[in-house]
């Protein structure tokens, strides 16, 4: 096993430590009291920097007091105002799209494009984004990714999960118990198996589906996508007839915590795929804390998070590719610079 491979696996093992480190550190940053007086959150970021937001927004959908809108673009939406908490997230601190947004926000609380008193928080390891934050006196969580030896943002998802939860908790924008937060800070190892291309999930596991697809794309250099139930049932089942060569494989992230109708949809959807002779498998990590529904959901989400990282690594080995090397993404960035 090469050093690169060892570092990749170590990052997976240290996911819980990433959560702990970032939750503790981000909880210490000073935020104005007005930051808690918002009616929405806009999280700006790209690629791996948004994966933690995906997980938190889906896993804690019922506990969040305000909606989280994710922006993967060069500018803020027109509805952003003084009642919006804007998060600028870039693992590297050099993400072009996030820097484009930050460049338009010149004052400590932002006044670009007619927006007054914007509430901003920056999450990054450094780079140009950290410099801009310091210059404009924006609240900044700058972390040292000591628990992500791979150096890949998608393998440092725990840093965004932990820091985002700490910020939401500090501003009283999420209602979670101490037990729930403890669950988010620990992981259990699960066996890895099965090759996948299409991931299907629902409700609190929607963020996991996105994360796993992203990791397979980048780490294993393999095409993967995801669909969410019940939306999938309104179109995709009729889109599997052609091409007739069935080289597609479905992975279902199932859960006993889903709405009963969604559980039934999982069953019927699998029946439809089998009738069309399409390969599939189902993974179900039952959370052991049945006495607390939300905690069992957390255990499930974190188990899938760990499992997905392991899966992407095993697929990379199967495909004989370097999981840390992203030549085409780097090519694109070089051509854009």
TrEMBL record:
GO biological process terms on file: carbohydrate derivative metabolic process; carbohydrate metabolic process
Keywords assigned by UniProt, alphabetized: Isomerase
One family name in Pfam for this protein: bact-PGI_C
An MF annotation (GO) of this entry: glucose-6-phosphate isomerase activity
Domain of life: Bacteria
InterPro entries, A to Z: Glu6P/Mann6P_isomerase_C, SIS_dom, SIS_dom_sf
Record has Cell inner membrane as a keyword: no
Segments forming domain SIS: 31-183
Family recorded in the similarity comment: Belongs to the PGI/PMI family.
Entry protein name: SIS domain-containing protein
Organism: Candidatus Komeilibacteria bacterium RIFCSPLOWO2_01_FULL_45_10
């Amino acid at each position: 096993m090469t050093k690169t491979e060892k570092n990749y696996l170590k990052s997976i093992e240290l996911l819980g430590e990433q959560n702990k480190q970032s939750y503790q550190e981000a909880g210490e940053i000073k935020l104005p009291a007005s930051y808690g007086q918002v009616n929405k959150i806009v999280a700006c970021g790209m690629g791996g920097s948004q994966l933690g937001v995906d997980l938190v927004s889906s896993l804690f959908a019922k506990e969040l007091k305000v909606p989280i809108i994710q922006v993967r673009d060069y500018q803020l939406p027109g509805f952003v105002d003084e009642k919006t908490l804007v998060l600028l997230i870039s693992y590297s601190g050099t993400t072009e799209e996030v820097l484009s947004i930050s460049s338009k926000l010149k004052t400590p609380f932002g006044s670009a494009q007619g927006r007054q008193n914007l509430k901003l928080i920056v999450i990054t390891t450094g780079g140009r984004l950290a410099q801009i934050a310091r210059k404009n006196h924006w609240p900044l969580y700058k972390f040292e990714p000591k628990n992500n030896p791979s150096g890949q943002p998608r393998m440092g998802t725990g840093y965004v999960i932990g820091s985002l939860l700490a910020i939401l908790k500090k501003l009283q924008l999420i209602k979670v118990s101490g037990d729930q937060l403890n669950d988010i800070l620990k992981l259990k190892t699960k066996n890895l198996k099965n090759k996948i291309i299409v991931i299907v999930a629902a409700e609190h596991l929607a963020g996991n589906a996105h994360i796993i697809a992203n990791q397979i794309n980048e780490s294993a250099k393999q095409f993967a996508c995801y669909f969410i139930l019940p939306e999938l049932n309104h179109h995709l089942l009729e889109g599997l007839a052609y091409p007739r060569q069935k080289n597609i494989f479905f992975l279902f992230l199932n859960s006993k915590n889903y709405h009963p109708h969604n559980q039934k949809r999982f069953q019927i959807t699998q029946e439809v795929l089998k009738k069309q002779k399409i390969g599939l498998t189902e993974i179900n990590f039952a959370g052991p804390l049945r006495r607390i529904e939300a905690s069992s959901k957390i255990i499930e989400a974190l188990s899938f998070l760990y499992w997905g990282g392991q899966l992407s690594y095993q697929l990379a080995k199967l495909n004989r590719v370097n999981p840390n090397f992203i030549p085409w993404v780097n090519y694109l960035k070089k051509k854009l610079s």
